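Backbone description:
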Amino acid sequence: METAQAEEKAKLQSQVREIKTSFERIKTKCDTRSRRLEEALKEVRILNLNFVLDLGSVGSLSTVH
């Protein structure tokens, strides 16, 4: 009986380690994806600002003619 309990404990500990490893791997991937999305959002905002500024300069040129 004691051996069965020790085996069950070892099996459970192994499963817990596996779950923790999987969780850390998933968390790392999520963190990386979040960072990349934040970077992409910053780039989009900059491109949008440049686009708006370009439209403004084109608009001011057309009023001069």
